[in-house]
Specification:
Length: about 725
């Protein structure tokens, strides 16, 4: 077909004068009836690659797509380009019988050029039977990464697409995805039986996107509120891992005068659609969402994407950040990271098949490597997707704008490469590091790797440094990870060449992310390192000690260290302001607050301190519906396990909520439940422990009491103790 014909068709049907990137080559390949694999970043124009050919070829193109919201979005867009609404339809669970019959009539009459089908609908016998009678032009598999267990949104039903297509009728395939590592790409092609497909791969580099990773701590809400207020009138998306966090954080944003809406799969579908439309129509500036939001959302002017929690995989992260700056303008991508979030994600995987857990852990390892690296983030991301980025400094990520000093690591690299070579490419990075550090793990002993010459030769370097060397050796092309056995380190030809002729190899040491303690109740960090004003922090600790003696309660019962740190950062000078401090709440503020507020007021006046007004954020945690429901249910003596059941919470999640309530200063009485589940003397023993202990930390309590009592029992008594002593 002549170029003029295709360009004319583009202008006629879509109003564009020219194609973007690989679009034209892809479309020609589809029109020629060949299998096609399209790897094109978000915003690259994937949809057009099957929309235009569907209009030009006889018959109906069948598009297999995973999300109902995405289908509706695409069908509406196609109808806008056409005079006839019948040009595009979808069949999925949102349609009733009459609507499905109307769709089928349009298809039979030859009006429909594009039919979107959910994979679940495709498997229904009646739909297979119907599609057998339809002249199909080609099949398009959108969001094709869903096929692969290594993809970020694996869906088992996607694995059944090929056999069902064979059952209907064999026609050319076009598979499209915005995120696929070489491993995922191989999986997709193999599963769809299209190993001979022509592959069109666009660059994954989105030069306009700025990447940054920030330490996640107790001030994360404040940082995000401050960021949004510093970008007035700009559209943004905030991704959270849980539905509950989405709802809670939306309320916090609203309380701070930010026009925000929530979006997650558990909401009523109509409300969800309305919220999405309001965001698209700019009636709301921020959408707070789980990953359920955004697939196929064509909003060009999203100016920032913030990840409240670290994502499960780099593919997911890349796709979600890809919703920023689709018009080529500014797009800031900020993720908040703390190591314990990764541990939380690992816990979520428990109960899944071992193979799935193994894959999940490997994907989390890659996410961790990205978060902690101090080299160019763009370079790390593109390398992950099999693309080499040769610039030394991209000038548009936190690491490039604040470069760290490089250190010589030639000898360390040689040690790593030699170890991988001796191990014949059959082991993962952690095994290599264990050998170098001289750790006698069961695996090392069983393989007799403690007999190797290099065993223990690297014990002077910490695990973090060895990980840094391995990661940066991979980016430099000296090491690779086996595509079929993901995670096994392989020596590349370049690595072998380096061993014969070693030269200087400099590494940038990973960023330090201070670890938080494992429970929310224990102090976030020791000392006053996190407080802006260590002098005030120290004075407040003295005051707390004095009050603790006077009131005969442990110091932590009055205010915890993180609360004091926050006070020494934001300088609350009224009881109302004190209530906004994490872990305080109205009960505690009224009971213990006046002396602290007076001390802060004096300190501010004497030292002429300018208080950081912009750092103070209104919280709504104490007003949340869930907390009110819990307190009211406990007042009515409803069994705690029944409360958890009613609200769809795990029992330990309910305890988290109750702990937050008592730590914030609300008095509750759970004796009715405790007396049902524990003996009186057991309650007394636990209670006595907390009365005499210097800390309320759970780990210490479990060490002391754990051989006699369960974690749940210890937590329940701690709730009783705190409520009676502190509130």
């Amino acid at each position: 077909m002549k170029k003029d014909f295709l360009t004319d068709a583009l202008k006629k049907h879509f109003g564009f004068d020219t194609f973007k990137g690989n679009q034209e080559a892809v479309i020609r390949n589809v029109l020629d009836g060949k299998d096609t694999f399209v790897l094109m970043p978000t915003g690259g124009g994937k949809s057009l690659c099957y929309q235009l050919p569907s209009l030009l070829l006889p018959g109906t193109a069948v598009v297999i797509s995973p999300l109902i919201a995405l289908m509706k979005n695409q069908v509406d867009a196609m109808r806008n380009f056409s005079e006839d609404n019948g040009v595009a339809h979808f069949i999925n669970s949102s349609l009733n019988r009459a609507a499905i019959d109307a769709v089928k009539d349009d298809i039979k009459q030859g009006k429909t050029k594009l039919l979107y089908v959910a994979p679940e609908s495709l498997t229904k016998e009646e739909n297979i039977e119907f599609l057998r009678q339809v002249p199909v032009s080609f099949y398009a598999i959108d969001e094709a990464h869903c096929i692969s267990e290594w993809g970020h949104d694996f869906r088992p039903e996607y694995r059944r697409i090929r056999p069902i297509i064979n059952e209907i009728s064999r026609h050319p395939l076009i598979a499209l995805t915005a995120t696929a590592t070489p491993k995922v790409q191989h999986d997709i092609q193999k599963n769809l039986g299209m190993m001979d497909a022509i592959v069109y791969k666009s660059s994954f580099n989105r030069a306009n996107l700025y990447y940054e990773v920030r330490q996640k701590d107790q001030n994360v809400d404040k940082e995000i509120v401050k960021f949004i207020k510093g970008n007035p009138g700009k559209s943004g998306i905030i991704y959270c891992l849980s539905r509950k966090k989405v709802e809670d954080f939306t309320e916090i944003l609203k309380a701070n005068g930010i026009n925000a809406l929530a979006y997650h799969a558990g909401m009523d579908s109509q409300v969800r659609s309305e919220n999405q439309d309001k965001f698209l129509m700019e009636e709301a500036e921020v959408i707070v969402a789980t990953i359920a939001f955004g697939m196929g959302i064509d909003k060009p002017d999203v100016r920032y994407v913030i990840h409240y929690d670290i994502p499960k995989s780099l593919e997911g992260y890349y796709q979600e950040t890809g919703r920023a700056g689709r018009d080529g303008g500014e797009g800031k991508c900020i993720v908040f990271y703390v190591h314990k979030d990764l541990q939380k994600l690992e816990k979520f995987m428990q109960g899944k098949p071992i193979s799935e857990q193994e894959i999940g852990k490997q994907l989390l390892e890659e996410t961790k490597a990205y978060a902690e690296t101090a080299v160019c983030r763009r370079k790390v991301l593109l390398h992950y997707f099999g693309e080499e980025y040769t610039e030394d400094n991209c000038g548009n990520c936190d690491n490039c704008l604040n470069p760290k000093m490089q250190v010589e690591a030639k000898e360390l690299l040689i040690s790593v490469l030699e170890t991988v070579e001796i191990l014949k490419d059959k082991f993962k990075a952690d095994h290599v590091i264990n050998i170098l550090q001289g750790k006698k793990t069961s695996e090392i002993i069983s393989y007799e790797h403690d007999e190797l010459e290099m065993f223990g030769t690297g014990k002077d370097e910490d695990e973090k440094t060895w990980n840094t060397v391995i990661r940066q050796a991979m980016i430099a092309g000296f090491l690779d990870k086996d595509i079929e056995n993901y995670g096994l380190l392989k020596l590349t030809p370049a690595g072998r060449k380096y061993l014969k002729n070693p030269e200087s190899f400099k590494i940038t040491k990973d960023n330090d992310f201070e670890e938080e303690e494992s429970t929310d109740e224990t102090p976030v960090r020791g000392g006053a390192s996190c407080a802006v004003d260590p002098v005030l922090y120290s004075m407040m600790k003295d005051l707390r000690k004095k009050l603790s003696k006077k009131l005969e309660v442990p110091p932590y019962v009055i205010f915890q260290d993180p609360s004091l740190e926050a006070m020494a950062t934001t300088y609350p000078v009224t009881i109302e302001e004190l209530q906004n401090i994490p872990g305080v709440g109205s009960g505690k503020a009224k009971r213990y607050g006046s002396e602290f507020v007076e001390l802060i007021k004096r300190h501010v006046a004497e030292n002429e301190i300018e208080r950081p007004e912009d750092l103070r954020v209104r919280t709504v945690a104490n007003k949340s519906k869930l907390k009110v429901y819990i307190v009211q249910s406990i007042d009515r003596k409803v069994a705690l396990d029944d409360i958890a059941l009613t609200k769809g919470l795990e029992f330990n999640e309910l305890l988290d909520e109750i702990e937050a309530i008592v730590y914030a200063g609300t008095k509750i009485n759970i004796d009715y439940f405790l007396n049902e589940v524990m003996d009186e003397d057991h309650i007394e023993n636990n209670y006595l422990y907390f009365k005499e202990s210097e800390t309320d930390g759970l780990e210490e309590a479990i060490k002391e009491l754990g051989n006699q009592y369960t974690e749940e029992e210890i937590r329940l008594v701690r709730i009783k103790f705190l409520s009676e002593m502190a509130n």
